[in-house]
Amino acid sequence: MAGDLRHRRPGGADAGGEEGDGGAEEAAAKAGPPSGVEEAGAERGRKEALGWLEWSRGWMGVVGEFFFQRIAASHLANPLELPPLDGVSVIVTGATSGIGLEIARQLAQAGAHLVMAVRRPKVAHELIQKWQNEQTEVSMPLNIEVMELDLISLDSVARFADTWNARMTPLHVLINNAGIFTIGEPQRFTKDGYEEHIQVNHLAPALLAMLLLPSLIRGSPSRIINVNSVMHTIGFVDAEDMNLTSGKHKYKSWLGYSNSKLAQVKFSSIFHKRIPAEAGVHIVCSSPGIVHTNVARDLPKILVAGYRFIPYFIFDPQEGSRSTLFAATDPQVPEYCETLKSEDWPVCACINYDCNPMNASEEAHNLETSQLVWEKTLEMIGLPSDALEKLIEGEPVQCRYGQQKAE
């Protein structure tokens, strides 16, 4: 069983917050998001990097998660027990491998109408056949469909959203799971002109969530779940250098990845604050923990050694799926999100790998830079600054990508 979310704030905030998260954060929370880019905020937004203390604390969190995640999550069942999901429509991106595969399989087996939004439809159809064969003869057929979606192309994202919205059917849960971590490889850019990590891990999911708002409002109460990472704690986002091309810092794949994950938290936080309660759309970032994959080569040597020689500490994909499944299905989550909003907490709801609230990094609490990331992201994904308000009101919004208007 997971803990009771409803009357809790993240990271022990009821007791005054974690070290470094106290009075300044509370003052920022009470102040609310800035109405514009003020001079002082812009100055803060242009600082070149995290301070060494923040950066060191972030890496300590990564190492601590590696060694203690299994102990912290020992109270959770594996697989996580899910409620019946008949009549619930869920879109899962990146549903053919890793954590996404486990998320998709368990949601389908719980009765959800699952939409596998994937780059390789053939692989998805093979998985569906395998899962169906594993069902007992008395079980109902799985309610799964496959739709093509390639996050490396923002045109593909816009077309996917147009196709789904045209059905005029409700969407109850969007799980932005798909992501990349191109370990040790040189910096690469998409055809849209954006660094691959920032596009696949942040820009494409942001565009998808924005354009699917009409369907999510039809499915209210509904949820947007962004699969994030503890690596966001070592990231820093310069809204004027999202592509990491200014030369201020030497490009490293871990830097591109961590920055993209922090950008996702920052954008989600402003998104969460701007959606009115009556819309009934709730936004959560979930952290799966450190999961057994082949992406360890660019991490600190102690973690690399752990991946090779201490597999006990690392989650398998089924264990790594639990926090996202919890965020997507637990009945406490909407009330928890509304509690944070009513208290003007500066960050969206974040669920840790142990299915309990977590506090995002200190940098994630910086509302000025979060506002800058929000504005820059809308510009990069081809939406006007008032897109959210128009979509909530049911008005058409012109997107630079795709072939049609988002309605």
Automatic annotation (TrEMBL):
One of its GO terms (molecular function) is oxidoreductase activity. Keywords: Oxidoreductase. Residues 1-43 are annotated as: Disordered. Residues 25-39 have a biased composition (Low complexity). InterPro entries: NAD(P)-bd_dom_sf, SDR_fam. Transmembrane segments: none annotated. Residues 1-10 have a biased composition (Basic residues). Belongs to the short-chain dehydrogenases/reductases (SDR) family. This is WW domain-containing oxidoreductase. It comes from Hordeum vulgare subsp. vulgare.
